[in-house]
Design brief:
CATH topology of the largest domain: Rossmann fold
Structural class: alpha/beta
Number of domains: 3
Strand content: 5-15%
Order of helices and strands: HEHHEHEHEHEHHHHHHHHH
CATH architecture of the largest domain: 3-Layer(aba) Sandwich
Mean pLDDT: 87
Distance between the termini: 51 Å
CATH superfamily of the largest domain: P-loop containing nucleotide triphosphate hydrolases
Low-confidence stretches: none
């Protein structure tokens, strides 16, 4: 076992990071980039764990079994600060707090590591505040920034960071990870990896949660029942309901895990009343979770749009006779019947309608249900 085990299909990246972790003086600033689901955040945490690993021999760092590796991966190590915003942007106040934290000496490990998972969500003014800290960091501080692509980060920042480029992992590697780490059956793992298009987080949820699999099946099947405007409006309402249910289910599981992790880190008693100092921290966590709820719904809607897109992607694949594997192989007969009743031009138009709706939901204050109804009518 090692900290690199949860990075399927990223062998070149693992080699690069392993070499840096074995160095006495690794680069002080890193930029991890890769498409959603490639494992940017997992790679950043694995690298932080390897940097702080307690093994004496350099080649053994990243063992995955020492106390430092366990606490870094669990998010409880005192020398690792992880920032992952659920808001639209990371504020200047948050960055200034990070910069102050970066000045502290490591409390127990060799390095103080600061991970910014959403570096692409910083405005230009905020990035300029961070720039000085990255240009002249304290000798024992390492910054790890994560973003979908280098273009999402200002050139002044990325020019001072060592790049790490992750790729979408092969489906087979994601399925093997689900079998080994999550105990999924080979069939469940293969299905989850295929329909998630190798997005590790989505695949894991689909493999573990039967309700998530059922909701996805309903979303993908919605176009099969669109025959009139009234049916389109009903379908939009159903899509909105499914996305909200998915967001609620996902949030409940995450909230429970976060609270359990916090109580365990605080050393809270298994029963009875919590001490006042612990109650305040639990209350702060619950308030953060409430603020995150709206973002969870937006993300669930976007994921529903992606799932809906796979239906028309498969239809277009059949219409053009490309011979490529279908994402939704489990409904091939329905896809072939639908494809026979329309044209590739119509399918492309429907894909454009979904893409426009995703953009509206992500960048404007449009009412989600109204946007979904307009989209559903355009799919007729």
């Amino acid at each position: 076992m090692s900290v690199w085990d949860d990075l399927p299909g990223q062998e070149p990246v693992i080699k690069q990071l392993r070499g840096a972790a074995e160095s006495e003086w690794p680069t002080h600033a890193w930029l991890f980039t890769g498409p959603p689901g490639s494992g940017r955040s997992n790679a950043a945490r694995a690298f932080a764990a390897a940097l702080l690993c307690e093994q004496g021999r350099l080649q053994d760092r990243g063992c995955g079994s020492c106390h430092a590796c366990h606490t870094v991966l669990a998010g409880t190590h005192a020398d690792v600060t992880n920032v992952a915003t659920e808001k639209v942007t990371i504020t200047i106040a948050e960055v200034r707090t990070l910069i102050t934290k970066a000045q502290d000496r490591p409390s127990s490990g060799r390095w103080r590591v600061i991970i910014v998972e959403d570096a692409d969500r910083m405005a230009e003014r905020t990035t300029n505040v961070l720039l000085k800290a990255i240009e002249e960091p304290p000798p024992r501080t390492i910054w790890i920034l994560c973003a979908p692509s280098p273009a999402d980060v200002m050139v002044t920042i990325r020019s001072r960071c060592r790049p790490v480029s992750l790729r979408v992992p092969p489906r087979e590697d994601v399925a093997a990870l689900l079998v080994r780490r999550d105990g999924a059956t080979p069939d469940q793992a293969d299905y989850a990896a295929r329909v998630a298009q190798s997005h590790i987080g989505v695949a894991r949820r689909l493999a573990r949660d039967e309700g998530a699999r059922e909701r996805r099946a309903q979303i993908v099947g919605l176009p099969l029942n669109l025959k009139s405007v009234s049916q389109a409006v009903i379908a939009a309402g159903k899509l909105h309901e499914l996305a909200n249910t998915e967001a609620q289910s996902s949030s409940e599981q995450r909230n429970e895990m976060e609270k359990a992790d916090l109580l365990r880190a605080l050393g809270a008693p298994e029963s009875g009343t919590l001490p006042p100092s612990m109650r305040s921290q639990v209350k702060q966590l619950e308030e953060d979770q409430k603020r995150r709820a709206k973002r969870s719904v937006t993300d669930a809607l976007d994921r529903a749009m992606i799932d809906l897109t796979t239906f028309f992607r498969d239809v277009l694949t059949i219409q053009l006779g490309t011979g490529m594997e279908l994402i939704n192989e489990q409904i091939r007969d329905d896809l072939e019947h639908y494809a026979a009743g329309t044209t590739p031009e119509s399918t492309l138009s429907r894909l454009d309608a979904i893409a426009q709706t995703r953009e509206r939901l992500g960048t404007t204050n449009v009412a989600p249900l109204l946007a979904l109804e307009a989209m559903a009518v355009s799919l007729l």
